[in-house]
Fold this protein.
Amino acid sequence: MKPISSESPLTPEDARALLAMLPAQVEVGPGMSERELDGVEERWGFRFAPEHRVLLGAGLPTGSRAWPDWRGGDPEELSERLARPVEGVLFDVEHNGFWHPEWAKRPADPRDALDVARSYLAEVPVMVPVYSHRYLPADPGRTGSPVLSMYQTDIICYGVDLADYLHHEFGGRASASQDRPCATIPFWSYFVE
């Protein structure tokens, strides 16, 4: 499969082939309709990347808590998963001294530092859970974004695009990120580089 890009977008056929390679314990339900996908985006205030939308339209992986259930999942759990990337950075600001070099000088008071960090983090791209702690940026205008493995500020590129990620995670193949760099995601790529 070619790298996902605006010139070579993920097709529904490609998405079905990716879903077919998932392990047997992963249940793949019917794909989400455009209306369902629009409803998720409206409810949670983000827009899926084009390839994420195509994948979910081809089939909705479920069967474990690692897959976000956008159709019938617990709203509190979905909210927590969407907040986890930002909350992880805030945890490291509070407990591990993290401070991004592009932010203003860190306030001496820890509460003030958290407030300042929150204001900066309100402007970063939303990261949408794909599986477990693997995230894809919410960007409807960008095709071929990398999938990041995110745990606090321990963030790595786990796939140069969604197809590469799924082959890496479930197909036993090394990520193509060893051969070509992951595209840049504002703010989040700082941790990868």
Remarks:
- DSSP finds seven helices and six strands in the chain.
